[in-house]
Amino acid sequence: MPRRLQALLALLPPARSVADVGAGHGALALHLAARHVARVIATEAAPGPYQELRRNLDAWGATQMVEARLGNGLAPLERGEVEGVVAAGMGARSLLKICADAADRDVAWVALQCVQDPELIEPWRKRHGWQTLASCPVHERGHQYLVWLLKVAR
Ligand SMILES: C[S@@+](CC[C@H](N)C(=O)[O-])C[C@H]1O[C@@H](n2cnc3c(N)ncnc32)[C@H](O)[C@@H]1O
């Protein structure tokens, strides 16, 4: 797994249910399941990446460990279905749209890895009264990425 995803994984609190939103290849979701998160849901917004996600989970023998769902943001999740959400490899605007629906879905925490416009995250967090539980920079292939674990305000 890339360092940016390893760093995100290291921030996560223990949880019984987590959604990886915009899971892409699905490696982070697989690692979550391997860390004994009992229920892992991996979502993808577009049919192409969703098919790739399903193919990978199938190839890894992980279809019983990770449930793949097609849909935008948190739309594929029922209210109260997961304790936490991870979202990685996206720009801040996409990440913050996901965050905006988190309270409505009864999500307790959100872990983010941002690839574009990271400066947008902190003002949004403050404006919405969310608490930063952990945050750190990650260096990978000449880039610096930021990762956050945020507590959703209710
Ligand atoms: C660059 S990939 C990152 C994949 C993986 N999370 C990672 O960090 O390596 C971004 C993925 O997020 C998906 N995506 C973007 N916006 C999304 C949204 N609003 N809801 C669900 N998936 C989304 C894209 O289809 C794409 O597969």
Explained architecture:
The chain is 30% helix and 33% strand. With 154 residues, the chain is of the alpha/beta class. The protein has one domain: Vaccinia Virus protein VP39 (Rossmann fold). A seven-stranded mixed β-sheet has the order 3-2-1-4-5-7-6. Strand 1, helix 2 and strand 2 form a beta-alpha-beta unit. Residues 5, 21-24, 28, 43-46, 49, 72-73, 88-90, 94 line the site of S-adenosylmethionine.
Give helix % range.
25-40%
What is the fold-level CATH name, i.e. the topology? Rossmann fold
* Name given to the CATH homologous superfamily: Vaccinia Virus protein VP39
| Top-tier CATH class | Alpha Beta
Radius of gyration (Å): 14 Å
Number of helices: 5
Shape, principal axes of CA atoms: globular
Structure summary:
The chain is an alpha/beta fold. It is 30% helix and 33% strand. The protein has one domain (3-151): Vaccinia Virus protein VP39 (Rossmann fold).
Draw up the topology in text.
Blueprint: H1 3-11, E1 17-21, H2 27-34, E2 39-44, H3 47-59, E3 66-70, E4 84-91, H4 92-100, E5 109-116, H5 121-127, E6 131-140, E7 143-151
The structure holds S-adenosylmethionine.
List keywords for this structure.
154 residues, Rossmann fold, seven-stranded mixed β-sheet
